[in-house]
Amino acid sequence: MADFHQNGIVTTLHNLSERSIEDLEYDLLHFSRFRPLGLILPSLYSELEGSALPAIIKELKQVPYLSQIVIGLDRADKDEYHKALEFFAALPQHHRVLWNDGPRLKALDEKLQKLEVAPKELGKGRNVWYCMGYMLATGKSESIALHDCDILTYDRGLLARLLYPVAHPQFNYEFCKGYYARVANGKINGRVSRLLVTPLLRALKRVVGTNEYLDFIDSFRYPLAGEFSFRQDVLKDIRIPSDWGLEIGVLSEMHRNYANNRLCQADIAKNYDHKHQDLSLEDANAGLSKMSIDITKSIFRKLATQGETFNSETFRSLKATYYRIALDFVETYHNDAIMNGLTLDIHQEEKAVEMFAKNIMSAGEQFLDAPMERPFIPSWNRVVSAMPDVFDQLITAVEGDREDFLNL
């Protein structure tokens, strides 16, 4: 059972009573009559062949309150797209699969590229962005959740607790971030959040001074969680990154667009485990190494928009400050693990800290070398301004792909 402490400047909604899934779903079914509820699933084709996504679909089949499920499918050829349609046909809810590698959506993407309003990189950010656009295009859902497709510990209670704050008609939340304990197989996971983001935020407060944005991000118990929910209006003006900075970028946009009392975080699961990325000590363009650089740059960019000035000396001081704070955190987590009968490899933890410290400098150098870099995908409001019929074209492409399959 979680405590009831309110930390930071964002409301925390705890799991205090282990309320039953059925009870939560009863409320959500009632809410859905007035505010239709939807779900976005960004997926790789390979996840259809894993163990996590089939179990997720089995759980989703039992969810009674969803009006719409939108699946973004990446890295799939024609035959794999057809297999995906068969795979997701098990869902009883209205659903559509966006074949992102199909000729119709690629043709639309090329049109948007010419107008300079399309994603510049492949990846989860691009997948999520097109799914958000499709949600806006159809207008079938007013409150929407998003979660990953590699969750090994998934049950439908996660979705219910994630959607509840933005579905309840008497709550005024526009956005909810999920959080949970990253503990599985007898050890503490979540290295990037524990060993990079939290100590980096604390180090930045010492180096650049107290800052409302840093306090805001530091209020979230799991800022890198891939699970969040939002009202439909959020989708119109949000600019999301196309790189590994997606989660921090979304939080940054919430900080820019909304007052703190319109945002919250909710305890959505006792335990959470998913596919783990390699540390990638030798390759800065892969795994947790690239992730740490992208995340760090996204924080630097946000601070720069608020008038903070960075130079090489700043980043050297930041690296040293971060390193000391992060090593103290290693001891803290080690003691926490021991008290809970868990294991934590201090050597591996400190190797991660050393890599993250190095990557703080790399992120700083890249930030200084490319000050005009624009990693954010334009908002859908801007896209509609550039191509007024984009939503019609998006729906036509998705329906055309589906009809081709049905006519086989």
Total beta-strand segments: 10
Query: Helicity level, as a percent range?
Result: 40-55%
Distance between the termini: 52 Å
The topology string of helices and strands comes to EHEHEHEHHEHEEEHHEHHEHHHHH
Number of helices: 15
Organism: Reinekea marina
InterPro entries: Nucleotide-diphossugar_trans
Protein name: Glycosyl transferase
GO molecular function: transferase activity
Write the layout of secondary structure elements.
Elements: E1 11-13, H1 21-32, E2 37-44, H2 52-60, E3 66-74, H3 78-88, E4 95-99, H4 103-114, H5 124-138, E5 143-146, H6 156-167, E6 175-181, E7 183-184, E8 187-188, H7 191-208, H8 212-218, E9 228-231, H9 234-237, H10 246-257, E10 263-271, H11 287-305, H12 312-339, H13 346-369, H14 380-386, H15 390-406
Parallel strand pairs: 1-10, 2-3, 2-5, 3-4, 6-10
Antiparallel strand pairs: 5-9, 6-9, 7-8
Please give a handful of descriptors for the protein shown:
408 residues, alpha/beta, eight-stranded mixed beta sheet, two-stranded antiparallel sheet, 15 helices, 10 strands, 51% helix, transferase activity
